Amino acid sequence: MKQRVVQLAAAISLALVASAAMAKTNDADVTRATLDNGLRVVIVRDALAPVITTEMNYLAGSDEVPAAFPGTAHAVEHMMFRGSPGLSKDQLAAIAANMGGAFNADTTQGVTQYYFVAPSQDLDVALHVQSLRMRGVDMDEAAWAKERGAIEQEVSRDLSNPAYKFYEQLQAQLFEGTPYAHSALGTRASFEKTTAAMLKSFHDTWYAPNNAILVIAGDVDPAATLAKVKSEFGDIGRGTLPARPAFAFKPVQAKTITLPTDSPYGSVYLGYRMPGTQSKDYAAGLVLGSALASQRAALFGMGMDGTALFGTFGANLMPQAGFGMAVGIFPKGGNPQPVLAKMQSILAEAAAKGIDPALVKAAKRKAIAELEFKKNSVDGLANAWSQALAFQGLDSPDAMKQAIEAVTPAAVNALARATFDPAHAVTAILTPESSGKPVAGKGFGGAESFASSPDKPVTLPDWAAQAFAKLELPRSTLSPVSTTLSNGIKLIVQPESISDTVEVFGKIKTNQDLQAGKDDEGLAQLLDGMFPYGTASMNRLQLQQALDAISAHESAGSNFSLAVPSVHFAEGIALLADNELHPALLPQAFSVVQRQTARIVAGQLQSPAFLTQLGLGMALLPPNDPQLRYPTPKGVMRLTMFRVKHYYRQTFRPDMTTIVVVGKVDPAQAKQVVEQAFGAWKADGPKPDVDYAAVPANKPSQFNVPDTSASQDSVQMAQTIDVTRNDPARFALNIGNQVLGGGFYASRLYHDLRDTRGLVYTVGTRFDLDKHRSTYTVSFGADPDRVAAASAIVVQDLKQMQQTPVTDSELKRAKGILLRQIPLGESSFGAIGGQLLTLSVEDKPLDAMTIAGQHYLQLTAKDVQQAYAKHIRPDAFVTAVKGAAPKG
């Protein structure tokens, strides 16, 4: 379903402390227990929003699969969504959809994880579903035959990604002879030989309570929740677990991998084996990777001095081992060898001379601060505890913090010496290759017809039916304080006391297409690229050092942000304002950014992704529409520093700016701090119009953009619509959108394209509603010989929406999804900040989600039918296929 791989930078932030097999702790917000059958339970109370996350971690993944069947664990994960004794596939899909949140899973080497994110009121339902799926799962050959088609489409999708192909080869080289030599994804050939009986055997062997860890986070009563867990899981019998696979790592043999890529730029990787998450050297590895990835370090400096377009360090870590990678980006047509040589030199120096102690100190400080930031998301908090318990094997609330604090520069340097040996490096160079120009299509299957197969009404079990019987408007937990400063800045403050941190989200409304002069395309990209170079009073290293000193993350530009411990809020805002209002804009930096931007643009103009979006734009919009403007390499090189500064002064205005502050801060204090930092900023002249004008309806057409690196086609079916972001019709369209594409298997498109036919792995539908123009898009990935059938079903299902009202059960489920998404949209600082920022920028009331909920409750099936009949044109799609030409 969804494979979550632990990145090194993210691993630090995910290293929340945890403990298992303890009845009580001194922390009132954490409850732990181990049931008699061995199930370990951790309950973390987080009252940020009335939302819960449950994560069931089974300590089995691709490590435990039979020989020659690398995707067995992944296939079991898929089949877990096809029902269990006492809960049919359709009932499971309807229940998950009714809950309105996330319902998914991911398979890794040593852990398979199943999770719900839902309103707190649905905790009982989530636990009962997890319990039923632990007890057993329906796995018959007919169901596996259908799911095999979907999982093979997932394999095709990933194998269409050159970076994934490199990842597979890198693992094979670094971990030869061990279970880590293959990814958790699996292969089409092995799936063809896999039987349902094999999958059931894997489930029955490894999905036992004594091989699982259940993490629950959110707004819960811990004692009552633990009682529910005991009631649901306590009578499930222990399993007899087989021996775990052995890991006998061989010395890595140096190797160079070369691959083509459809990216607009090339990539150079230097990969090395590193300690795993359960190694004694794990904390030292985290600090080493974070120090190497610092914006003050030499790898990042490659992008700042022009040696490369960008540079950094990252990693993928499994329990027994992992790998770290230095990364360098070079332009299409450029020579990767100088970038590779620079990366080799940087890592050789790290091995020989060690890491700057100041970077080690900053990395440790930030890693510890990140533990506090994880409290700012219910979902992130649960995932952090799962990582700590299931992936890192921690057994103490302070284990990771203490381990990081104990890391010394000497330990980091010793690990660098042991790791960065060129004799054990795997080098990869991904070189951009053009695939060809778009080709007009003659139609992709529009003449085909299929019997209609909408979702049938599903009778829910009583325990689920009672939970979803009544639709109610949820109470919002937000009480933002909004004010407009004297210079026109809109300031919105949402106090939250869940952590000792503050997060800031900001946006300046600009539109290069409408505000840049003729032949000035690229000004916005050049300006954005210059903010990291520092301010008028601090160079980039001094600015980053000041941010490191207060454990802050900051980015400046037309979209800007800050995350900072609350005790340093004023200092963080001052640094953000200095970067935003007084960027250095130095000639030397301009020269580097201009060359880099021109090279990036040169690659983009030939990339399949850009050609696809350009083709869609040209088919949907009138000729010479401003939204069709794009920079060229020659045009970028003609731009001057004077034009960039003029564009900055013209477009960066306080009266076009919104700042949202979320966290442990008093609104009056926040206003005072923001006014002090941003108050001197003044606007000149009338406010500009930055919204595109309305456009006429598009005509239908098709085209194909070749992509030789992709084995699967990426399909977008798009059309302009006459519903804008303030049109009341949007509410009925949103309900219909949930019927078509919301709620996973319960939606019509998932049911018809994936569940019954196995034509696609995922399908998405979305409305992009602007002030004066809007689009509707359906997107999916499919093999070339399945594109025609999938496209025809999309059109068929849309016509059915227009001809027949949705069923009562579909209408209720769609309303339930949208209503339950209201509290889910308040379950993290990021979600809160993003929601308030968007509403303010679009001049909507800050309680617009509650207002929308009131509309949803009143709408009827007839309203939905009429909205789709009036505003959607099933036969007027522009269909863009990126990949091989569709067959049939």
TrEMBL record:
Keywords for this protein: Signal
Residue ranges of domain Peptidase M16 N-terminal in the record: 41-187
Signal sequence interval, chain numbering: 1-23
Pfam families recorded: Peptidase_M16, Peptidase_M16_C
Alphabetized GO MF terms: metal ion binding
Residue stretches spanning the membrane: none
Domain Peptidase M16 C-terminal as annotated: residue spans: 195-366, 643-816
SUPFAM superfamilies noted in UniProt: LuxS/MPP-like metallohydrolase
Keyword Thylakoid carried by entry: no
Family: Belongs to the peptidase M16 family.
Family matches, as PANTHER family: METALLOPROTEASE, MITOCHONDRIAL-PROCESSING PEPTIDASE SUBUNIT ALPHA
Protein name: Putative Zn-dependent peptidase
Native species: Rhodanobacter denitrificans
